[in-house]
Each structure stands twice: as C-alpha cells, then as structure tokens.
Design a protein that fits this description.
The chain is α/β, with parallel strands linked by helices. It is built from 17 helices and 22 strands. It has helices spanning 8-15, 54-69, 72-75, 78-94, 96-107, 111-132, 174-187, 202-213, 228-237, 250-259, 285-297, 317-330, 349-364, 396-399, 415-423, 438-447, 482-485, and strands at 20-22, 25-27, 34-39, 44-50, 140-141, 153-161, 164-168, 191-195, 221-223, 243-247, 266-270, 276-279, 309-313, 368-371, 386-389, 406-412, 427-428, 430-434, 452-455, 470-471, 474-475, 488-496. The strands form 6 sheets. A 7-stranded mixed β-sheet has the order 14-15-16-13-12-18-19, sandwiched between helices. A 6-stranded mixed β-sheet has the order 9-8-7-10-11-21, sandwiched between helices. A hairpin with a 4-residue loop joins strand 3 (34-39) and strand 4 (44-50). Helix 4 (78-94) packs antiparallel against helix 6 and helix 6 (111-132) packs parallel to helix 7 (174-187). The longest helix is centred in the N-terminal third of the chain and has 22 residues, at 111-132. The protein is globular. The structure holds adenosine-5'-diphosphate (ADP). Adenosine-5'-diphosphate is lined by residues 168-170, 195, 197-198, 227-229, 232-233, 236, 248-249, 252, 255-256.
C-alpha cells in the first residue's frame, strides 16, 4: 500500500487498542465496547478504538468540572496557561510527521497536504491563542445613573471562562478542527470534553498525550471517542456542560442546538455551506481557473467552505469551465502515502455513496456531467473530480451541500444578477471573487451574505482571521480574537464609592 515507512510511534499507535482519555488517564469505555476505524484508501481496519457513550461522557464532564472548580488550571496565572498552550503548538510542530501520518491513515488526505496544511495550521492556532491568554481583559465603564444624582460609582467588566465546554468535531480536518476548538477554550481558562468524529479518532488521542506532555493538568481536556447519536448527543444534552461548540452538518447542528436547550447552554456552530466562486470576464484566466479548481478539489471537496458553485461571466464561461475540467482530469487519485497522489479517497463508504447519489440526482434532473461523475476503482473510497454544467437553480446539486469533489458551473451576465444568485442559498459560509477591478470586487464582497469572502484567492486560512457562517452556516466565529468571545462570560461589577 504505502511507499512510506510509517513512523515507529505511529505504527505503535495504530496497532494498540486506543482508549478514552479522561482525567489524564487512558481508560476503556464503561461498556467495554469498541469500534474500528478504517483506512479509506483500502477499506481495511486501521485501529480499534474504545467506544464511549453517555456513561463515559458523564465521567469526562465530571472530571472537567473538578478540573475547572478545584484543579490547578484555574489558579494558574494567564502567563502560565499561555506558556502551556504555546508548548502544545511547539510539540505539534515537533511531532509533525506523526500527526501527518495519522491524518493520512485515518482521513485519506495526501501526506504532503497534512504536512503542509493541517499540522502547521494546528500548531500556529495554538501559538496564536497562547498570546491571547494574557490579554483577556474587561473595561472600566463611566456611569451616569439618572436616579442617583451626586452618587459616584466605579464600574468595570471582567471576562471570565464559561466553564465546562463540550466540543464536537468532524472528520475532514481532524487535528485542525480540534485545534480551532481547543485553542480559544484553553486561552480563556475553560475545561473541555472533546468528541472527535467516529471516522477519524486517532489524531485527537495523540494530541491528548501531547497536551499532557506540554503540562496541561489532568481533566482540563478529556477526549471521548464514540458515535454522534450516543456520545455526541449525550455531550450536547449534558446538564453539567456550560457551552457546546460544534462543527459539522447543518442537520446535526440543528439537533445540537435543540439538545442544548435543556440547560440553555451557550452554543456555537460552524455548519455547512454551498459557497459561490465568482469569475468575472476581466479576471486573470490562469489564476481564476487554478483557483476555482483548488476551491472545490482541495481536501477532495470535503470542506464546509468548498467553492462548490462556480459562476463565470458568460463571455468566458466555456474557457473557464474547460480549464477547470482539464485540471480535474489531470488530478492523480491514489493512496495518500504515494508521493505522486494529488487527491486521496473520500473519508468513508457512506460519503462515497452520498456523493454518488448526488450525481444520480443531477443526471436525472437533466444536468450535464462535463468530466468525472463516478467512483474510481473498486478498492477504497475514491471519487473522480467532477464538473457539472447546464444546471438549474432548483436542482439538488445546486442547492445542497455535496461534500465531495463536485462543482456545478453556471454563467452569469451582470453584477446585480450574480449578487442575487450568490445569495440564493440557505447557507452563507464563504465566497470567492476573481476580477482585476478592485471596485467591483469590494462592491460585490459587501453584498454577499457570507462569513468569508476571498478576492483573487480561495481557501486562505489564518489563526488571526475570524471564520464562521451567516444564515444556516452557523452561529459565532472561530479563530481571530472573536473566537474568545464564544468562550467567555462577561461580568459587570459596580461599586458605589
Ligand atoms: P458528517 O455528516 O459530515 O459526518 P456530522 O454532522 O454527522 O457530519 O458529524 C460531525 C460530528 O457530529 C461528528 O463528531 C459526529 O459524531 C457528531 N454527531 C453526529 N450526530 C450527532 C448528534 N445527533 N448529536 C451530537 N453529535 C452528533
């Protein structure tokens, strides 16, 4: 299978049965149950993982509560907490190779991508958030209380941790999504129960060991693997959890928000998308074509922000679509460990079926498949990079998130038309604009109802740049200093002098 010899620590990691990480200890699930994680490039079992459920979530929440109320974490200075978080970032960099291999094994992405993107971005996120640990500040507020003439007050605000945070993450960037969630939660002094996706449980467990090595006290981060309907649902509903943060499908986001109403826990959600990528006739054609291909094919289209609706100004439509289709045809699919591989498999059998189902629906509704459109090979979960055209706005392939390497392309005639078309979606996560006219670019950026707009680029992420969705793409923002707000409560303190 592999042209790379796995790192020894990774080999050991995947052959040992992996346990849950609760209160600084590796433990079996209370039920004794396990599940297997599968290598998507081969369909073969990769490792056996303890399967947590409501009982284990309860133990983990209690451990997180003790760590929050009574542990050393709350007594540390912000500087001490910041240094631990920084060290987590440094240790991720030191163990880059192991993390990259685990991501490729578990998720299928090319090793070069995990090395260049997933792991360094995760390390940077922790370093960026480490700096904030010493800068979580309130304000002093001058008061003018009208019914207390002559009285003097000293009023200020304190920004305090929310408490015990539940975090549920998806499988598309397993380590990076853990980092996006853990970084701000730790910088603001919370404790955490993290539930990774059942498809990709490995790197979060490895991260738990790294975090302990960095000096994170027991119980501050607990990792409970298990299925969404059991472990995930129990975490979202748990009365001992003060806030739930979720990244995943809009459908499950709705379930999480509903489950959170029991104790009215705070909720932040990073959900689905159907992001428009808009190419004007005056764009640099090479950059726009390469950018449009990257927007949809990066991470095999398994990105919530994938540029899955390509709109090209009518004069250049044929040229741009042909260019993207040429790139799609040239992409080499294969095992993520093969250095020639440019695109790995989809994450699971289920995902392969789902993407195939969308293609069937598109064909039935009369769309044209320009290139791709089918599974590749019969081993592993590979799907060809696909371009679809001649769509109508009401087709399922245009309206719904496919979460695979499938782009739908349509022409447009005017800025007003494209502004309306871009916004004609229940989602509002991202958008791309390709043009040499900066006025047009910024005028359109303002009109698009989405959390991120990229101009002459796509898929640019940075720990300092806030990320999140308008409309049904989510609540709240991750990364940037805005992420800290989601993990803090604000207390007003008022003293009469
Ligand atoms: P996808 O459909 O892409 O697999 P999901 O939204 O189903 O994405 O999954 C994202 C995360 O949500 C995973 O960790 C999964 O286990 C979890 N999850 C799925 N269903 C539920 C649920 N009912 N309650 C809580 N978490 C869930």
């Amino acid at each position: 299978m592999s042209t790379v010899t796995l790192n020894k620590r990774v080999q050991d990691f995947v052959i040992t049965r992996r346990q849950l990480f609760i209160n600084g200890q590796l433990v079996d699930a209370k039920s004794g149950k396990t599940f297997d994680t599968v290598n998507p490039a081969t369909g073969e079992t990769l490792a056996t993982i303890a399967e947590g459920d409501a009982a284990d979530i309860d133990l983990a929440v209690r451990a997180a509560r003790r760590a929050f109320d009574d542990g050393p974490w709350g007594r540390m200075t912000p500087s001490e907490r910041g240094r631990i978080i920084w060290r987590i970032g440094d240790l991720i960099s030191e163990h880059l190779e192991e993390f990259a291999e685990l991501e490729t094994l578990d998720n299928g992405k090319p090793l070069a991508v995990a090395r260049a993107a997933d792991v360094p971005l995760a390390a940077e996120l922790f370093r960026y958030m480490a700096g904030w640990a010493t800068k979580i500040e309130g304000n002093t507020i001058p008061l003018s209380v009208p019914y207390a003439p002559g009285a003097e007050f000293h009023a200020y605000t304190l920004r305090e941790p929310v408490g015990v945070v539940g975090q549920i993450i998806p499988w598309n960037f397993p380590l990076l999504m853990a980092a996006w969630k853990l970084g701000p939660a730790l910088a603001t002094g919370n404790t955490v129960v993290l539930k990774p996706a059942e498809q990709t449980p490995l790197s979060a467990l490895y991260l738990a060991e790294i975090m302990a090595e960095a000096g994170l006290p027991d119980g501050v981060v607990n990792v409970v693997n298990g299925y969404g309907e059991t472990a995930g649902a129990a975490l979202a509903a748990h009365p001992g959890v003060d806030k739930i943060a979720f990244t995943g499908s809009t459908e499950v986001g709705r379930l999480i928000a509903t489950a959170a109403t029991g104790n009215l826990k705070k909720v932040s959600l990073e959900l689905g998308g159907k992001s428009p990528n808009i190419v004007f006739a005056d764009a640099d054609p090479q950059a726009a074509i390469a950018g449009a291909a990257n927007a949809i094919f990066f991470n095999h289209g398994q990105c919530c922000v994938a540029g899955s609706r390509l709109y090209v100004e009518a004069d250049r439509f044929d040229e741009v679509v042909a260019g993207v289709a040429d790139i799609a045809k040239s992409i080499k699919l294969g095992d993520g460990f093969d250095p020639d591989t440019q695109m790995g498999p989809l994450v699971s059998d289920e995902q392969l079926e789902k993407v195939g189902g969308f293609l069937d629906s598109g064909r039935q509704e009369g769309a044209t498949v320009v290139t791709g459109g089918a599974r590749q090979g019969d081993k592993g979960f590979f799907f060809q990079p696909t371009v679809i055209s001649k769509t109508r706005p009401d087709m399922r392939v245009v309206r719904e998130e496919i979460f695979g390497p499938v782009v739908v392309a349509s022409p447009f005639e005017s800025l007003d038309e494209i502004a309306a078309t871009a916004n004609d979606s229940p989602y509002g996560l991202g958008a791309g604009i390709w043009t040499r006219d900066i006025s047009k670019a910024h005028a359109l950026a303002k009109r698009i109802r989405a959390g991120t707009v990229w101009i002459n680029c796509y898929n640019v992420f940075d720990a300092a740049l806030p990320f999140g969705g308008y409309k049904q793409s989510g609540w709240g923002r991750e990364m940037g200093h805005e992420a800290l707000e989601a993990y803090t409560e604000l207390k007003a303190v008022c003293t009469q002098l």
